[in-house]
Amino acid sequence: MYDIEDYIQIFQDILGLEEEADIRTASCEDVEEWDSHAHMELMTAIEARLRVRLDGEDVAHFLSFEEGLEILEKKGIAF
Question: pLDDT tens digit string along 49-70?
Fold first, then answer.
């Protein structure tokens, strides 16, 4: 079992979001700091911290905190 706090912490560290409510509703369309560079940092950090491999399709569809949870669930990551 994985700890949701690890996933939340990645968003805090890379996007600078502090409030959990802001993190849970975060999307690349709504968070100014979530540019292409930050997106790749998020993907790299998630792969490293959660020990999961994200393919190109995963990366392309990982456009929000919630969508990320769905992708990770399909990869067997349960919080």
Answer: 999 999 999 999 999 999 999 9
